[in-house]
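Teaching note: in complex prediction, the entire set of molecules is handled at once rather than each chain in isolation. The prompt given to students was simply: 'Predict the structure of this complex.' The entities are:
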Amino acid sequence: MDFLIFKAPMLMVQASLDGILLGILFALIAYGMALQWGVMNIINIAQGDLVILGGYIAYTMYLAGIHPAWGVIVSPIIMFFVGWALYKLVINKVVDRDLFISILATFGIAIVFQQLMNFIFGADVVVAQSEYGTTMLFDNSVTLPNSKIFSAFISVLYAIGLVIYMKKSRLGRAIRATAQNARAAKILGVDTEKVYAATFGINAALCGIAGALISITLTLHPYVGLPYTVRSFMIVIVAGLGNLPAVAVSGMGLGLFEEFADYILGTEFRIGAVFMLLVFILVYRRFKLSKKREYLK
Amino acid sequence: MNAIKQKDLILYSGLIILGLAAPYLFSAFKVQLTYLCVLIVLAMTWNLQGGEMGYNSFGNILFYGLGMYLTASVQVGMFFPLAEWTESGGEKTFVHTTSQYFQGIGVGLLVAAIIPTIVAGAIGYAILGLRGHYFAICTLGLGIAAGEIAGGIEIIGAGQGFTTPPFPAEIVDPEARGKFFYFLSFFVLVVAFVFVKYIYGSRFRLILNAIRDNEDKAEAMGIQTMKYKIVGWMCSAFFCGLAGGIMGGLIGYIDSTDVAFDGREMGVFMVLMAILGGKGTLWGPIIGATLFHFFKEGLWTFILGWQYVALGVLIVVIVVYFPEGLMGWLREKYPERFGEVIDEKDRKSQVELK
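The expected output is the structure of the full assembly:
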């Protein structure tokens, strides 16, 4: 094998660390998707675009002279209301309909979001400088931007916070009850409409956090939302709904896969590799299930 | 019965005469008319597996882009080294003679129809085992992956694009190019219509509908659903490949993600057009495509820059408020025109039951 990565073991360490830190971020987005999928039975194609929008909020703060890291607090608050409004405008009409309709409707939303972001923020690739510096490991052969460590730390913090919130709070219990059986929850006095809106809002807020972190660790561009949607979709189908440790692990796995694909196949095939992995995972699961004469539902 | 047939005959001959006369009547709009034909073909054949079979694919753009690249590659590769052609980019070091051009596009379109069909057959067994939204997302991934991968392959121009052979300069008539592509696409449209019409009258359609309505039951009734699903998808892929080949020649320039595997435009358009007109009807996609094209061409210029916002809003509005499409709406309004007899007494008793 004539690949650089196999000649230099330090590159392997580099790719692994990058991949795991990136994967934690993906897992955060995927957790939001699992939440709304489990509760509302909706696949949100606009998930990635919500992430990018959250990133642009942090970027706007950066332009205004505020440190972009504050975005992890401001962006989820704004995005919660964006999600709430989106639910009231469109999503509540597709919630109990065919899944294909929700896919197409959110696809439309994704196009609108992309284009509006293109108008407002321009079509350039931008990044918010956090100026956190880098950590050098192993005799300076592995460089690790501190912003990545920061983003992984914040992601874990928010994820733990959300899990506790879902377990302890009244709204969290209402959301879990609605996910189990919406009808029964309604009979027992849960305002499911409000629960749905809150779920979508929380999902959007999670996207906002992830986006703010992406704005300082990676790059932002109006049209790169869809890969994030596909990544989170992939993590959810591998991990299953409502299994948070599995979401975290498969998120890191995906991050590792991407970093190694980047080194082995070349950067130009990175996104292609992500999408091919999606196809491969779906087909693999289909063949595994078809042995038992079942299919993905 | 006879009277209906006669009515149909008048309708079809009228449409064909209109189609043949269109480039002379609306001489300035030949490119738009070609687009319209291609859009109708795409919507009609998407409907075959999206509407009739219930397998909503976002990835038929894969076959469209494949057909586009194949036609252009064959057209060039038959006479000149392909790598040098793409390397030279816009500067033409090689020039096709008239006969070479037409031979090339003929063989190219043939390949562009056959290879995507084979590809659909080959991946069909794996992909069509997925159901519902998993199929939709998987095909969406396929379409985008194809675009990303094509954008990394050197021999077909990679990121900088692929210039298709220009129309032969020996033909001096400036109208010839437009006419050629129009009649080509019109021919494909007629073939596609005859084919789809034939399928609508056949047992095959009933099987596809059975798969859509309840696949497990269809299988229990002894239908080999997988076989029919693959054939259904292959029918779609055949015409998608042809349409892509024609569009490649018409546009004259192939870019991996913006022209060929253009999931953001063509890939969504074909789904949207079929839904706008009404999924699972013969005329729905045709009417949907025509309306959509007029809407798009009429409005695009007025809202320049905002067209994608309009497109996104249009998708949301159509999907949320008119999921049955135009034909579905008409059917609800005038059921007797669709051969549905409503027993007034039965209807009233049902209303009372509610």
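Point out the following to students. Residues 30-262 of chain B form one domain. The two ends of chain B are 38 Å apart (CA to CA).
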